[in-house]
TrEMBL record:
InterPro entries: 6-hairpin_glycosidase_sf, 6hp_glycosidase-like_sf, GH15-like, Trehalase-like_N. Residues 3-142 form the Trehalase-like N-terminal domain. GO terms for molecular function: hydrolase activity, hydrolyzing O-glycosyl compounds. This is Glycosyl hydrolase. Keywords: Hydrolase. It comes from the Bacteria. Residues 216-581 form the GH15-like domain. One of its GO terms (biological process) is carbohydrate metabolic process. PANTHER family: GLUCAN 1,4-ALPHA-GLUCOSIDASE, TREHALASE.
Amino acid sequence: MPAHIEDYALLGNCRSAALVSSDGSLDWLCLPRFDAPAVFAALLGNEENGRWRLAPSDPVIERTRRYLDDTLVLETVWVTASGKARVLDFMPLGDENAVVRIVEGLSGQTTFEMDLVMRFDYGRSVPWVERLDPLTLSAVAGPDRLVLSSTVAPHARDHHTVARVRVGEGERHVFSLRHHPSHLPVPAEQDIDACLKATVDQWQVFAAKCPDVGPYTALVRRSLLVLKAMTYAPTGGIVAAVTTSLPERVGGERNWDYRFCWLRDATMTLLAFMNLGYFEEAQAWREWLLRSVAGNPEQMQIMYGLAGERDLQEYTLPWLAGYEHSQPVRVGNAAAAQTQLDIYGELADAMSQAIRGGLPRHPRSAAISRVIMPYLESIWREPDEGIWEVRGGRQHFVHSKVMAWVAFDRAAELADTTEEDRERGLHYRQVADQIRREVCEQGLDAQGQHFVQAYGSSEMDASLLHIALTGFLPAHDPRFLRTLAQIEKRLLHNGLLLRYDTDSCTDGLTAGEGTFLVCSFWLADVYVLLGRQDEAHALYQRLTDLCNDVGLLAEQYDPVGKRMLGNFPQAFSHIGIINTALNLHRAQCPARVRASA
């Protein structure tokens, strides 16, 4: 059985990512891209679906781990009765996909065992393994090749590759696993020490650009590293998570593939990068965004592949048992074909924030806007599947209408360069006012007191917090304050927010999931807007205390079972860490810059 989600650490090279558990087992790795079939899929099955374990063979007395300062180089220190040693795990940054594991003796003598189970196609295909030389193995299945190079000779055992090595103080052994197309010659082995130094240097140079954010600096810097690791360097796209099918309820069916790029992440990602001075990353993300959405506005999707691919067909992998038997295991995401009106607001807000943040106007953005805005004007009154991608039928979700308002509001703000643009901007403002009037009439409960999840509904939804966070209404508007009170009353669960109540809402799936972490960050942001700083800080502290020992957060959290749920690590959650920290810091230092959501 795989470890708990929170027991994993992330390795990454801005092309793919690996998850390694606290017991030294690398249980998830997709090559050559985040969305490629996994070569280690034990996370969603068992060791026979692929894994790479490297750990002491003797009973472990103590085990600690950390990332080397401001990097994604993982150090695990193992103490046994006979000695003390450490393992350094990392994925070198560069053009080659590889995972490197270095064992170093610190004191005494420690015996390590390596068990490498190489599988392709999400654990289904056993490769043909052959020895290239005494210390090098090649494993081939179809188009893919893995090459294991080590300083100790491995051998085969029941379709596993195993090795045993004893390290004393000052001794060192290296294991390197590289991925290459099987039709090409095997490249020469890289200098591991040079790779390690270059990787450490590049991560630290990136992290060093992070400005001081008071007491939140370390958390913000770590989350920036996570977001950078989840960026596909060739295109600038950022995946929502590096995993698929980690359950939102253990044993349930709410298991989705998050290895794609969502438009709604764009606004908060751009805000996080730009507000911290990372304009190069923000510009790469904007370029990805504009390439992806180019074309017919009727064909604009809520998410795309790493390079802007549109076909994200969803299917299941029946040979994988699922994480703790949570079925089905899904690849692809059918929600890509949904209609979600909020994406137009997120796209407009992203472009607006980019310009306000100092990025020059992109020549394509104005042209795209002139095509998209008339289309949105023709469809904003229609129902949709909403921000939570429900599979129980379309509704008139209030959040979707609010974000449609955002689209016209931001477009009106930006339409000021020519007389024609100004006339267009006046029209956009009229449409925005029309949307706000309708939402304030039809988006309230039957008594007209507070906003609800959808027209005619009595349900609450954490996304309603964006009524204040987007500026749709002032945070102190009585209707919003009553909405906030209802959210706190009905969706707070052990101090954390559900996104909505799955027991009473019809979303087309079996009820039950954890608290949705980004929603609680939104709640903290609202507290900042309302001047409730102590509550905002306390909630932020509660949320960041949920990070695991190496500073990572999943999508959701079960406050009763006290464990993480959902795909991991989750970009949305780490964006929440960054943006809420900025809002808290600005509120504490108002002379520097006004707090914003």
